[in-house]
Amino acid sequence: MQIARDGPALRSPPVAMGRVVGLFISPGIGERMRACSEVRALAGQGLEGDRYALGAGSYSRVGRPVVRHVSLIGREAMDAANEELSRRGLVPFDPGETRRNIVVEGIDVYALLGQEFRIGGVHLRGSDITRPCHVPSAAAGKTDFKEAYHDRGGILAEVLSDGRISIGDVLKAKP
Predict the structure, then answer these.
(1) Are strands 46-47 and 122-129 parallel, antiparallel or unpaired?
(2) 123-142, pLDDT tens digit by residue?
């Protein structure tokens, strides 16, 4: 904390924190997501072995101005979407079935849009929201992902530095 000369204490903005509870990669479109305890992030590419780092993701060849190296979703949002599915008598989606790379808890991932943040020692920037589509339903053989995860699908992020991300790593962001 800084002390202002002849004035009140100046406080640093609070640091928003979350924690990684799931990591997933898939080498190709529609291929099953593989759970990992640790992944290697590659600056300007994504997660080593993942379809987007390999240039083989669904949107890899689409000329979009949005960087989509990795995707993040909040565990709390997944819980809410799955509760909605269960209330409607439908089967919930497991974390890997959401087709998102990083599952976090304790932080609103939408607050990371346009912001730089760290997960463990890796520096990232939130780039856009994810728009839930039919692919997770088709890949999992379940229905209504797009509807239940609307406004809960998470965000995309740009990987700004190399490093490792592990289950349990802290996500830190300054507001």
Answers:
(1) unpaired
(2) 999 999 998 887 888 888 89
| Domain 14-173 -> CATH class | mainly beta
pLDDT, tens digit, for every residue of 28-60? 777 789 999 999 999 999 999 998 776 654 454
pLDDT of 158 reads: 95
CA trace torsion 145, 106, 52, 167 (10° rounding): -120
pLDDT confidence of residue 109: 96
Tracing tokens 């990992």 back to the chain, one arrives at 36
Domain map of the chain by residue range? 14-173
